[in-house]
Each structure stands twice: as C-alpha cells, then as structure tokens.
Amino acid sequence: MKRIDYYRPSYSSLGRKKRVRKSAPLSFVKPILLFIIFMAVCGGTYILANKVYTAWKLSEAGKWMAEEADISGADEELTAELFSLSQPKLNKPFSVQDAVAFQAELTGRYPQLRRISVKRGLLNNKLKVTVQERVPIAKFQKNGMEKLLDEDGCVYSDSRQHALQEMPLVELTGEVPQHLDKEYVDLIQSALKLKKQLKFIRVKFNLTDDTVKMYLAGEREIDFGVAKQLRQKARRAAQIEGKLPADISGPYVLDFTYFDDGKVFLRQKAH
Predict the structure, then answer these.
(1) What are the two backbone dihedrals, phi and then psi, of residue 251, each rounded to the nearest 5 degrees?
(2) Does residue 12 belong to any structural domain of this protein?
(3) Which of 73, 126, 215, 255 could join 265 in a cystine, given CB atoms 3.0 to 4.6 angstroms apart?
C-alpha cells in the first residue's frame, strides 16, 4: 500500500502573512572606505618594494653604506669598544666581503666571545654587530698567563679583571688543547653545584695520564682516578663528605680507584 504524508500547518501559523525583507538603502561610505584602504595598502607595498629594490641594487653594486652602528649582546665596556671599532666602517661602501672580514677581525681580537655576527641592515642603513660572550667556569695558569675555561670546554683568555674573579682554580698538567674533554667540564660544573659539600680549593687535571684530583682544606684530597664518570664521582664524594664527622682528625684521601666495582675507600694520609 502506498503511503501518503500530508502536511498540516499549525494553528499559530494560520492567518499570518509572509514577511518581506526590505532592502537597505545603498550606502556609498563603505565602498569608499574599502577603496581608500586598498589604495593605502597598494601604496605602502609599492614604497616598501621600491626601497627593498634600491637597497638590493646598492648592495649588489657594492655601494651600500652604513650610517650608524648597532651593537647588541655585549656589556657596557665591550659595547663601547665594538662601537669604536665600527666607526671606520661607516659612511663608505661596505660589501658582504667587508662584513665577513670584519667578523673575522673581531673573532681574532676577542676570544672571549662565543659567537659574533656582522650583518648589514639594508633597509635601515645600520651596521649590526651581535655578539654572545662565553661563560667562564674555571681559571688556570698557562705559560705564566691567566686562562679561562668555559662551559663548552673552550680554553681562552680575557684581559678584563672582572671575568677572573671568584673563579675556581684548576691546575693543568701536560699539553693544554684548545678544548678540554666534556668529562672535565662535567666535574667542574658538578663541583660548583655541590659547593657546600665539596669545599675544594683547587682541582688538578693531569692531561698526560688522564687523571683527576681535587684538594680540600686540611690537606684532604679526593683522588677521582681516571677521568671518566666524573659527574657521578663528584656526587658520591659529596655524599661521603656530608656524612663524615665534623671532628675527623688528620688528612685523608678519598680514593675512587675501584669506583667501577662500586667501592670508594677513605684512606688516612701519612704525616
């Protein structure tokens, strides 16, 4: 049997007239505003494109010139030095090759800088010099000169006195490379974090036989043995030092020779 559905309007809709939406009167304000905004965007784009093209042509022709120097990333003292070195580069043609040469000059002049970037601000006519200073974690003597060790293991020099203050002293035996192994850096960083337990006076790195010793007050000594697992050894040494009685008498050696076997020995030093 065929099913037929009938639609029955509700009583509330009976007798109602269909609403007819009235069209709003035409407004000329909105199209005018849109046209003005469109023209402003086009004009700004044209001016910017023209400026970029002009700067690019000058750059390609090697005629780009900086009107001022912009130094960032350095402290007040170093900023003044970099600003002074940048002055001869202003108001004369400065090419990409000149930027590379100036960056190399600064790299050789300031070994305490971890990163140096020299760029030309083509749109603002600025010579931009951005630097990042190294963070020293220790100091040592090499050929009668004070040297620094940063968190990347880089060995470098810094003539500024404030950089040499309050740095832990490290004694290096053997030929000192430009970069120390990460194990040595791990030990220094761990010892600095555990300064309350490991009140060390100096650390000795023997680069010839690859061994490490730490010296504390009262002729106490920590022999870490071979320079491996130094971060773990420093933590264990701090735990042992923290549990030793305060009235322990006489100098001693904390021996990590058998650390791989899970053993650490506390040996009394002979007078």
Answers:
(1) -70, 150
(2) no
(3) 255
Residues in a beta bridge with 252: 268
Residue 249 clears pLDDT 80, i.e. is over it:
no
Going by C-beta distance under 8 Å and a sequence separation of 6 or more, which residues neighbour residue 22?
none
DSSP-derived secondary structure letter, 65: B
Using CA atoms, how far apart are residues 221 and 251, in angstroms rounded to an integer? 8
Beta strands at 200-206 and 211-216: parallel, antiparallel or unpaired: antiparallel
Co-location of 104 and 217 in the same domain: no
Whether 169 and 178 have beta carbons less than 8 Å apart is answered as: no
Q: Taking all residues of the chain, what is their mean pLDDT, rounded to a whole number? A: 82
User: Can you tell me which residue has the tokens 């402003």?
Assistant: 40
Segments forming the whole domain that contains residue 226: 136-268
**For the range 162-169, what are the long-range contacts, defined as Cβ-Cβ under 8 Å and sequence gap of 24 or more?**
163/112, 163/136, 164/139, 167/136, 167/137, 167/138, 167/139, 168/137, 168/138, 168/139, 168/192, 168/200, 168/202, 168/203, 169/138, 169/139, 169/140, 169/201, 169/202, 169/203
Amino acid at 214: M
How many domains are there within the chain?
Answer: 2
- Are 112 and 223 in the same domain? no
- pTM for the complete prediction? 0.66
Q: Is 58 left (phi over 0), alpha (psi -120 to 50) or beta?
A: alpha
Q: Among residues 216, 221, 233, 213, which one has the least CA distance to residue 266?
A: 221
